[in-house]
Structure prediction request, 465 residues.
Amino acid sequence: MKVTKICCIGAGYVGGPTMAMIAYKCPHITVNVVDIDEKRIAAWNSDQLPVYEPGLDEVVNACRGKNLHFSTRVRENIRAADVVFVSVGTPTKTYGAGAGRAADLCYVESAARMIAEEAEGPTIVVEKSTIPVRTAEAMRTILESNSQSGMFQVLSNPEFLAEGTAVQDMENPDRILIGGDQTHEGLAAIACLVDVYANWVPREKILTTNTWSSELSKLVANAFLAQRISSINSISALCEKTGANVEEVARAIGCDSRIGSKFLKSSVGFGGSCFQKDILNLVYLCEHFGLPDVAKYWNEVIRMNDWQKSRFSQNIVHTLFNTVSGKKIGVLGFAFKKDTNDTRESAAIYVVRDLLMENARVSLYDPKVRRETILQDLAYVGVPEHLLASHLHFASDAVTALDQAHAMVVLTEWDEFRHLDFASIYQRMVKPAFAFDGRNVLPAVKMRELGFQLYCIGQGKSPGG
Ligand SMILES: NC(=O)c1ccc[n+]([C@@H]2O[C@H](COP(=O)([O-])OP(=O)(O)OC[C@H]3O[C@@H](n4cnc5c(N)ncnc54)[C@H](O)[C@@H]3O)[C@@H](O)[C@H]2O)c1
Prediction:
């Protein structure tokens, strides 16, 4: 079968960009991205896309209205498709069995039920969402027991893009992973999807596996990436105690080709919608399959991350003479990393919460995140409404956020924070002017010369320094 019509259920950070790239690279395929969220679809059809990603506007503009369409007509577009991608959210469950760890599969199940009701001919259903291993089995059961046609193949095709670099990651992926049944029909379905990606990805980079290996590989990839960050963050604390410098240690160990240099940047902690939820999911799976020691091992990656975040906020309070009550703290950055407007699980949520709970007056600036998102995030982690109203202020730029502030706190590594006018900021801050760099992006030597009391993660006092 040659694929000519794709439908993607879920127009989020994954569904929107990945489908835009398929449409861009495959002008002969019509791609319909559908979502039940009307506001989100309206944004995809406007000049203000709901997802900020460098280069994404150009890709969308090149094919929207031609072979790329965004709409809320979910059922109609499922009916017309040869291939249906499922790219809905799989957040951590907040209720019932497995709460706080297991993935909530209610959106995946509702998508599967809709596909079963609407699909007319033979349909390939592709899991793009990150899901627990063996979810394809549950999907197949739902599809086959609720459909008249019953001709489905379920493939696993996890997405490895990183927010902030999604366009280049999709255009030039390290690999594409496709898992499916190792039967005649399963292998034929895998071949159809391989052909779609082969329009721009070299075939040797398209890996095909059995379904369970593909599903599990996504969780394991995120667990390994997050583990590297927690490992270097644990060492950052030791550096601060001993006078070593974590940046130097990372460089020294990263030169070893067995270790490699990527993902060794120490920081206030990892965030994003995926790392924590996927590790929790892995932990839950290990427990479910009777492997408590393996579960405990991976859970420590999250515990270390939580510790790093609270260590950072406690250090601010401690350094500011054990109280930040009533003091203005200028916070730069709220997104979980630069070049995205996504704040899910951002370390900033927890640090700003801690500061507000200590009665600090937080003045916050982020170049891309909307105010409503920040307010929602902070309310969700328990900051009372009256504190948000009285103690949180939004600044239109970094300099305003820092005017008359007792401390500068950098929580996202936006490039613009490297090049501020630190001399005039220093003049306008309360003295001693403290700065806490949660991303190690500030020009440390220059700032110290200007008089800042600067704290950088993982940098103890050097010998003679
Ligand atoms: N964000 C990332 O960087 C990233 C990277 C790789 C994989 N993933 C995985 O991809 C999946 C999607 O993540 P995301 O960040 O795009 O989530 P998201 O929350 O941004 O988007 C999910 C969308 O699905 C829609 N939806 C839910 N149920 C629906 C239904 N029945 N019909 C139509 N639309 C429905 C929601 O309205 C929402 O817009 C998750 O499983 C995630 O783990 C995310």
Q: What stands out?
A: DSSP finds 18 helices and 14 strands in the chain. The mean pLDDT is 96.
